[in-house]
C-alpha cells in the first residue's frame, strides 16, 4: 500500500509540467528546448503562442495594442496551456505578475525560477532588440528596476535556481537532477 503511494507520487512528479520562469534573457527558452529534447516532451512557449495567435511580433503587439492588451492575451494563453500535463513550458518574463497565471501553472506544474543578476542579464540581452521593455536609453537601469519590482513574484516559484554565469547545459542538468 505504502509502495503504491510512492509510485503514484513519483509518476505524478514525472508527468507534471516543468514551467520555466524568470527575467528576460535568463536563458528560459534555450533551457526549455534542451529539456524538451532530453525528456522527449512537448515544448510550449507563451511568447510563440501569443505571436501565432496575433499574427504579429511581440514588439508590434506592444506598439500597436499596448502592454495591457499583451498581458490579456498572455493570461488567456497561460490558462489554455497549463491544464495539460507532461509539457515543458517556457514563460515570458512577465507571466508571474498575474497571481492567477501562477496559480494556473502550479495546478499541473512545477515552477522553476532561473534567477540571475541584473548585470548578467544585461550581458545576455545587450545587442538584442526584440524586447520592447528593454528598448530604452539605459537598459541596465531598466533591468535593475524591473528585476527589483518582480523579485517577489519570481520567488513564488517552487524551485529557485541560481543561474548567474552558468551555462545553458549546467542549468539543464541541475533541473534534471531536481525533477527526475
Ligand atoms: C516580457 C518578456 C518577454 C515577452 C515580452 C514581455 C516581460 O519574454 O513576453 O517582451 O515582461 O518580461 P522573454 O522573457 O522570453 O524575453
Can you walk me through this structure?
The chain is of the alpha/beta class and 180 residues long. It contains nine helices and five strands, in the order αβαβαααβαβααβα. It has a single domain (11-175), classed as Rossmann fold (3-Layer(aba) Sandwich). The chain is globular and about 45 Å long. Strands 2-3-1-4-5 form a five-stranded parallel sheet, with helices on both faces. Mean pLDDT is 93; it is low at 1-8. Helices cover 58% and strands 13% of the residues. Bound molecules: shikimate-3-phosphate. Shikimate-3-phosphate binds next to α2.
Concise synopsis of the structure shown:
With 180 residues, the chain is α/β, with parallel strands linked by helices. The chain has helices at residues 2-15, 28-39, 46-54, 58-65, 67-82, 99-107, 118-125, 139-154, 168-179; strands spanning 17-21, 42-45, 87-90, 109-115, 159-162.
Coarse morphology:
globular
- Beta strands, count: 5
Q: Which homologous superfamily in CATH is the superfamily? A: P-loop containing nucleotide triphosphate hydrolases
Mean pLDDT over the residues: 93
User: Which fold name corresponds to the CATH topology?
Assistant: Rossmann fold
Task: Please tag this protein with its features.
180 residues; alpha/beta; Rossmann fold; five-stranded parallel sheet; 9 helices; 5 strands; 58% helix; 13% strand; globular; disordered N terminus; binds shikimate-3-phosphate
